[in-house]
Amino acid sequence: MPPKKLDPKDFRFLERKGEQLAKRSGDINGIDFLIDGCEDCQIIILDHVAQIFIDYCKRCTIVIGAVASSAFIRNCENCRIKVICGQLRTRDCVDCDLLVQVPGQPIIESSKGMRFGPVLTAYPDCEKHLEEAGLRKRFESDSGRCQWTKIYDFSPSNPPGGNHWSALSRAEAREVAVVLAQPDEVPLLLPRDPFLEGEEEEAGGEVKAKCMEDAAGSSASSVSIEEASSCSLADGGFGGKVREVRAGLRGGSAGVVAAVRKALVEEDASDGVVWLVALGSAIPNAAAATVELETGGGVRISCVQTGLLQGSRPQLRVACRRSAP
Question: Under a CB-based contact definition with an 8 Å cutoff, are residues 193 and 146 in contact?
């Protein structure tokens, strides 16, 4: 039986006004997609695509999954966009907020009032779509770090007067992330620039998603992961005292959150860091707990590390600090 003929209408949203529009996993499956002339819409594309064109949109919120090659954003105004792609190019855009994960530098041209931040969390199928789009290997290469604080401006004198782009603060990026969040999102652990106000606290200036040794020198490869617990740990390079909370399989993310909060309020952790550590099958609990800690108040995530221990066992480490009151 010949393959089903594709209908071009299934791969575009054109001239839509005030609608909620969605494509889910498997709807696009690596084909190009077009969003053109939409206004006041909420648009989500939770699938992997070859490339995407976003043209002449106004006041839209747009979430794009894994784009294998380029995401072109042109002639858009007052939009909020979240995208993971192989290349990002904007042209003739005004006053847009973009959360991006792209290997290297995002590119702007003839645009102004553009504000950039990193993609902090992603929808549950994103990891699978990164693999299908071929992006995972690109992000983990030597040149794969997302340089979202170092935008390449093709037209530095056009439009005149400057104010072409700026980097979002941590608080501003989180506000945009809340608007663009999807259900059951998990932290996106890919190499990127740190926030400008937190370089000294983010693992020496970047978040790394690659094989690494245990940053604090502990025997994490042999810890028990039966239940969440806390134990003393030597200074992990952050200054002050450090504790470690080991994520477990029982009790879900709520148990992990409770253990981290308990460790943070103890007297000997008041000036230091609590490391949330998870191995293997305990990582989903820890990832969910990280999101809950970030959104629940009172805790600031200052560093995320991932890697493989001996025996190729995956490890997640999250540095948690108290937030300022």
Answer: yes
**Distance from the Cα of residue 238 to its chain's centroid:** 23
Cβ-based neighbour number of residue 143 at 10 Å: 10
Q: Of the candidates 192, 52, 50, 53, which has an alpha carbon nearest to the alpha carbon of residue 134?
A: 50
Chain segment 26-64, per-residue pLDDT in tens? 999 999 999 999 999 999 999 999 999 999 999 999 999
- Sign of the Cα pseudo-torsion (253, 257, 262, 268, in order): positive
pLDDT 10s digits, 240-282: 455 788 877 666 788 888 888 888 877 454 567 888 888 777 7
Written as one letter, the residue type at 200 is E
| Mean pLDDT of the residues in the chain | 81
Q: Of the candidates 208, 189, 186, 203, which has an alpha carbon nearest to the alpha carbon of residue 292? A: 186
Lookup: tokens for 56: 């002449």
| Structure tokens, 120 | 């902090």
Contacts of 9 (CB under 8 A, 6+ apart): none
pTM above 0.85, yes or no: no
Say which residues have a Cβ less than 8 Å from residue 288's Cβ, sequence separation at least 6.
186, 252, 253, 256
- Residue 258, classified by CB atoms within 10 Å of its CB into exposed (0-12), middle (13-18) or buried (19+), is middle
